[in-house]
Specification:
The N and C termini lie far apart (66 Å). This protein is globular. The chain has a six-stranded mixed sheet, sandwiched between helices. A five-stranded parallel sheet has the order 13-17-16-14-15. 37% of the residues lie in helices and 16% in strands. The chain contains 18 helices and 17 strands. The chain has four domains: 1-30, no CATH class; 31-56 and 181-347, 3-Layer(aba) Sandwich (Rossmann fold), CATH 3.40.50; 63-177, Rossmann fold (3-Layer(aba) Sandwich), CATH 3.40.50; 356-464, 3-Layer(aba) Sandwich (Oxidized Rhodanese, domain 1).
């Protein structure tokens, strides 16, 4: 049998089975399974819920598709132009896109550099180093790329990479249309094909770079304009790997709010609960992003399900069964430290004292806060200790004069042991946009500190108001 490059070949085995043979690992990207979730797990009576298992891509995530589609047209030319010195692929990523690009670069004799202002998942950082990647952590004023922040080092670096005379292959996942096209041409049509030529009634997607949600939504609606698309973002005070908050999403060039019929928030606790359901009851070793997608899907679909007829009860005239699809982006193994930090009870350890995860929404909403003008006046008195909760790189770039830098993860560790400050010393907490600081202000207030406040709007509001910032 003649082999056609890039095309799978079925090979009969002696036991009557078959296997798929490829000429390259990149040929294994895509064509992931669509698996029906047992109704006994999700409890929906009239909606069939399916998981698109992107964790089964060869490098482990949905980002394999975009990384390959963005890099493929340029890899050979980059390697050729670099000559013996070797060229380099560069991406502003600290997660799955970086992992996939590191593999692809190595396969083509190129190096890979991950540029970020914060590597928050230790397992991903270790894997990138194992793959030979370079990691450059630049200071940034917020935890994500902000194209409007003209003096932000991360933004300046992004613009340098995007210049026509750049010698690097910059895949530019936040703005590259080939990110979206990978899912418009691949993921979306695969879902339709696996549903016997029908688009699902619902598509539920987490919003990161917005490439997969936008591309799949376009493909499904091209087949059936009535498809309802739900976008899921992280709660503003939470961090869920691979998912942005709504404010962060608006900074991504591929994000278009019009893509989604509704945008809902998911908390980190909900993401972990959804992940556990997929892991333990469905045999799907999804990470927190897939857990968030599952949790958000069931929550959204429950209302639609309750509003439809029940074919079993006979109380109402049953409606036609609906279908819904969510994406399982990647695997749980890369996030064990993330889960352990938030749910030590899952690893046989007691839940930790004084955790911000235990706060109620009411406590966070009513946390003591102060605006920029009043904060300047208060700081001028010399009374408050100003604590900057951002990364060391962001702090080094620009910070409030006289503030001390305690990165939020370390600050949380300190709080587990009790109040880290004297009750006699007022405290002003600052973070990028005032969300994390509000949560910690609420927690310190609960713990008995009499005078702690959060800077409303964070360092971004301070900068936008023209208040002075200094650089290390």
């Amino acid at each position: 049998m003649a082999l056609v490059p890039g095309r799978p070949v079925l090979a009969d085995h002696t036991r009557g089975g078959s296997a798929v043979r490829y000429d390259s690992i990149t040929d294994a990207i895509g064509n992931t399974p669509l698996v029906r979730i047992d109704p006994a797990v999700h409890g929906l009576r009239n909606i069939d819920l399916y998981a698109k298992l992107e964790l089964l891509n060869p490098f482990g995530s949905v980002k394999d598709r975009a990384a390959w589609n963005m890099a493929r047209p340029h890899l050979a030319a980059t390697a050729s132009a670099a000559g013996e010195g070797g060229g380099q692929v560069v991406e502003l990523s600290s997660g799955n896109t970086a992992k996939a690009l590191a593999v692809l670069a190595g396969m083509h004799g190129l190096t890979f550099k991950s540029v970020t202002n914060r590597m928050r998942i230790p397992e991903i950082k270790d894997l990138l180093l194992l793959l030979g990647a370079q990691i450059e952590e630049l200071p940034g004023q917020s935890e994500c790329l902000d194209p409007t922040a003209t003096d932000d080092p991360l933004t300046l670096f992004h613009r340098t990479l995007s210049e026509p005379d750049s010698t690097c292959l910059h895949t530019d996942q936040y703005f590259n249309p080939r990110n979206t096209e990978a899912h418009f041409a691949g993921t979306g049509p695969e879902i339709v094909k696996d549903l016997d030529g029908q688009a699902p009634d619902w598509f539920i997607a987490c919003v990161g770079t917005a490439g997969s949600s936008t591309g799949v939504a376009r493909a499904l609606r091209e087949h059936d304009p009535a498809v309802r698309v739900v976008g899921l973002v992280a709660a503003k005070s939470d961090f869920i790997p691979g998912i942005r908050t709504i404010d962060e999403a608006h900074e991504v060039g591929l994000f278009d709010p019009g893509t989604y019929d509704t945008i809902e928030t998911v908390s980190a606790d909900e993401a972990i609960e959804g992940m556990l359901t997929l892991n333990r009851r469905c045999g799907i070793l999804a990470g927190p992003t897939g857990g968030a997608a599952y949790f958000g899907a069931v929550r959204q679909l429950r209302a639609a399900d309750e509003g439809s007829g029940d074919a079993e009860s006979g109380d109402e005239e049953p409606t036609q069964r609906q279908s819904a699809v969510f994406i399982v982006c990647d695997r749980v193994e890369s996030y064990l430290s993330y889960v352990r930090q938030r749910r030590p009870d899952l690893f046989g350890r007691p839940r930790r004292r004084n955790s911000p995860a235990d706060l109620s929404d009411a406590e966070i909403r009513t946390a003591p806060a102060i605006g920029v003008a009043d904060a300047q006046t208060w700081i001028a008195t010399g009374e408050p200790l100003v604590v900057d909760l951002r990364s060391p790189y962001a702090y080094a770039a620009l910070h409030i004069d006289g503030s001390v830098n305690i990165v939020d993860e370390l600050f949380e560790e300190l709080l587990h042991g009790g109040l880290p400050f004297s009750r006699n010393r007022p405290v002003l907490l600052a973070c990028p946009v005032g969300e994390k600081s509000a949560r910690y202000a609420a927690l310190l207030t609960r713990m008995g500190h009499p005078d702690v406040r959060s800077l409303t709007g964070g360092v971004i509001a301070w900068r936008d108001a023209g208040a002075p910032l200094v650089r290390d």
